[in-house]
Design the sequence.
């Protein structure tokens, strides 16, 4: 199967530090592909290169067969790529619905403000319906009118995901969506991700330290250590891989 997303020989240097060293991976369309590794392995650097916050020293990143390295960050959303971040950056005084409407901004024509009154009102109603649909997918519709700053941490993480989903991405980059969540909340995220990939066909690349989630949802796992790929395969294979156990999972991981 032709990959929807491919990284080839990606190298990223920060002065004398080699954050990524000829790293490569391919992601199948509609799959959940996990990227794991110790802190400092290069995972966030990789996401920042994909998101165009960093320009790699060498190599290429292709989405749907075309390089993203000439695109500016805002152009990636129009191409169908969205991401979340480790540190949640919500608009705390705005409601959950309003935060998702911000995420819809890339899909609302710029000329809407110049439409006649009835047409503009219809466009605004459609935007609200689209935002409510996203909130319903993530279970946040009951708190649509609650300011983001008043939501608990678990719901804030879901709102961050909702805002990314509002752009209707075909490729979703998730940076530690389960970090800091309780078991019940992790199970909820698990169900959402499986639904997004299996039923809605969204390709997901997942950076995560919570192995409960990775081993449950991932179709394929790539392991980074010191900027280099040390293993790749299915979750069960990765769990037993000697190098991965030594570098990251620990001896009890495969018990």
Sequence:
């Amino acid at each position: 199967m032709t990959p929807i997303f491919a990284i080839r020989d990606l190298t990223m240097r920060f002065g004398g530090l080699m954050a990524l060293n000829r790293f490569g991976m391919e992601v199948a369309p509609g799959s959940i592909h996990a990227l794991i590794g110790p802190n400092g392995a290069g995972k966030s650097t990789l996401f920042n290169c994909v998101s165009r916050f960093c320009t790699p020293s060498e190599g290429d990143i292709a989405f749907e067969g075309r390089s993203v390295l000439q695109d500016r960050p805002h152009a990636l959303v129009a191409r169908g790529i969205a991401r979340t971040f480790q540190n949640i950056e919500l608009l705390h005084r705005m409601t959950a619905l309003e935060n998702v409407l911000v995420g819809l901004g890339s899909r609302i024509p710029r000329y809407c403000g110049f439409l006649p009154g009835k047409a503009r009102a219809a466009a605004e109603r459609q935007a609200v319906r689209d935002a409510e649909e996203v909130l319903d997918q993530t279970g946040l519709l009951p708190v649509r009118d609650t300011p983001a700053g008043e939501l608990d941490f678990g719901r804030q993480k879901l709102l961050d995901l909702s805002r990314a989903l509002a752009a209707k991405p075909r490729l979703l980059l998730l940076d530690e969506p389960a970090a800091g969540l309780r078991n019940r909340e992790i199970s909820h995220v698990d169900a959402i991700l499986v639904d997004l990939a299996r039923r809605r066909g969204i390709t997901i690349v997942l950076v995560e330290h919570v192995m409960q989630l990775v081993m449950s949802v991932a179709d394929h796992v790539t392991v980074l250590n010191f900027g280099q790929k040390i293993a790749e395969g299915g979750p069960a294979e990765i769990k037993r891989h000697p190098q991965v156990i030594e570098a990251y999972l620990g001896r009890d991981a495969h018990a």
